[in-house]
Amino acid sequence: MDLNSDFFTLLGLPRRFRLAASELDARYRDLQARVHPDRFVNAPEAERRVAMQWASQANAAYQTLKNPLARARYLVELAGVDLRAETNTAMPADFLMQQMEWREAVQEARCAGNHHELEHLHHRLRADIAARYEEIAAWLDDAQDLSAASEAVRRQMFLEKLQLEITDALLALEE
Asked: Domain 7-66: which topology?
């Protein structure tokens, strides 16, 4: 194992989308216990610096793999697929229409101060996101269809952003 290992290898986990959170947590704690800089306080400067690098890499791995969207993006990118997320915003027309309808509903509820409707939209979107993560898992782990997985991940990025907008709208109403 070296500092250039992928995050799954670093944590001793299979390279899969479906990960047990408890396993991820346990592997992370185990690695942190071995490389935490506090264990190297009395070590020479070079060893302390390496320990800091290991701890930083372990934290990056954990943060990436515990977040489903980040984990999906990471898996697709590890397989050599560039999502071009910042530049490729082309989506199927039906998905874009759905996005527009969601955003209009959020805007209307926000303007009307309708907390109940925003909660309802948030709940519906969470269910949609969860179902789409199941699709992503199937594309990545079962079918190993990187093309379908990358499209699903790109869509999920839109939905996660919309979920944040709803959360922001809810918070704004609570203030």
From this structure: Helix Hairpins (1.10.287)
Alpha-carbon gap, residue 120 to 111, rounded angstroms: 16
Instruction: Give residue 23's pLDDT band: very low, low, confident or very high (50, 70, 90).
Output: very high
CATH code: domain 93-174 is: 1.20.1280.20
Query: Could you tell me the pTM of the whole model?
Result: 0.85
**Domain residue spans in the chain?**
7-66, 93-174
